[in-house]
Amino acid sequence: MTSKGPEEEHPSVTLFRQYLRIRTVQPKPDYGAAVAFFEETARQLGLGCQKVEEHWSHDPFEAFKDSEGYIYARGAQDMKCVSIQYLEAVRRLKVEGHRFPRTIHMTFVPDEEVGGHQGMELFVQRPEFHALRAGFALDEGIANPTDAFTVFYSERSPWWVRVTSTGRPGHASRFMEDTAAEKLHKVVNSILAFREKEWQRLQSNPHLKEGSVTSVNLTKLEGGVAYNVIPATMSASFDFRVAPDVDFKAFEEQLQSWCQAAGEGVTLEFAQKWMHPQVTPTDDSNPWWAAFSRVCKDMNLTLEPEIMPAATDNRYIRAVGVPALGFSPMNRTPVLLHDHDERLHEAVFLRGVDIYTRLLPALASVPALPSDS
């Protein structure tokens, strides 16, 4: 892959780099500058633009492009690329004078990286969203280092669990019984044994992808005041990502049983507990998938349908009955979201514009469905 000089740079790449320079990372995202950027781009495109506003702060970014054409910036893969690809695809379709049976709406919402609770989770309940009468949605995916393109049809459910253990306090020189640490240790062992079982299940079956099993990681330990004091209370926090085929009721009962088996005074609470997993069918019974996959086949794009191992705003969209796919057209690209040196080659970015320029007309031309009413 080679890069063009600044004077020859493709205008879509220039727009992409302008967007990348806006700092939209937590905990102080510059959403104001991002909104202004989209308002101005929409004005230039002759698009209507409606802002449903929250509060955020300001801070700029630099987007560096090296001599090979790789663009380094937070958001290059996750997921400012997709935002600009949507806009540039719509620009092309408008310039060419296309009209479609369905309307194409683009939504730009905040807070996805911190759960979407002040963004898409609220937006899908608002009258502005219902007025869109959405039949289908596209949201972010993940890069694929091979020739294939990953597409996500469902997601694991985030369960953030805090286990608290209470026990006898005392001087740390003594062999105290029924301590908080001993009981918490039993729960930690049970959960990490489950983690190992799921890991082995994934490793032993080449047909399984990460999103098909339930993952868990111990992410926080709390408790204690001094080296020589046995604490009365200790806690451990876990990040579970529950596969969509899991019986949620039975799984929660399993968590409770691990706590009960550890002894008296061991409880759990949820900081997050997503209970509405939905699966978008990936066969021709689903007209949206049929249209999506047909375009990819016509463009000789190999698709790898998977369950998203993490969580995106698609979970809120699917939960209100709208089928959705997670797709970021980045193949031959290492997965670098949230990583150092997050980057995307400009040729991959521009190819993504080409792909959306074909996908959007096909999806906007799906015939009327009973669910549309």
TrEMBL record:
Keywords: Cytoplasm, Hydrolase, Metal-binding, Zinc. Its main location: cytoplasm. Zn(2+) 2 binds at residues 78, 113, 338. It comes from Homo sapiens. This is Aminoacylase-1. Residues 154-263 form the Peptidase M20 dimerisation domain. Belongs to the peptidase M20A family. It holds the Pfam family Peptidase_M20. The lineage of its organism: Eukaryota, Metazoa, Chordata, Craniata, Vertebrata. One of its GO terms (cellular component) is cytoplasm.
